What we know:
cytoplasm; globular; repressor; Iojap/RsfS/C7orf30
Amino acid sequence: MTTAAQVIKTRLPNPPPPADVLLQHVRNAVEELKAKDVVEIDVRGKTSVTDHLVIASGTSTRHVKSIADEVVKHAKKLDCMPLGVEGEREAEWVLVDLGDVVVHVMLPRVREFYALERLWTVGDQPPEEEDALIAGRE
């Protein structure tokens, strides 16, 4: 007596969207909810964790949470589930990890205190004094 073998159909997961497509959707999301002082930082070569950081400010904790929620909503439209969302309860700093793009939405005072832009751009541009010294030597 033979029995028919059961075939389990597997489906490969959808590949994540390209970083530039994901980044454009993040831009659209933060723009749609009027985030303040949006900065994008290319961190390829500085970290293996992500390729791009997007840092934005909200005017209140409710605004910060709404911006982060909109980022998640736009990512889901691309069939991209966030790897993690942190800080939603307090909503002073919400981090949305989308893999190739990590989004930080912060209250202005929190953003000023942690100064992520300075942390991730140190060494990208030489100080003006060094430029003057180099120019004087030539």
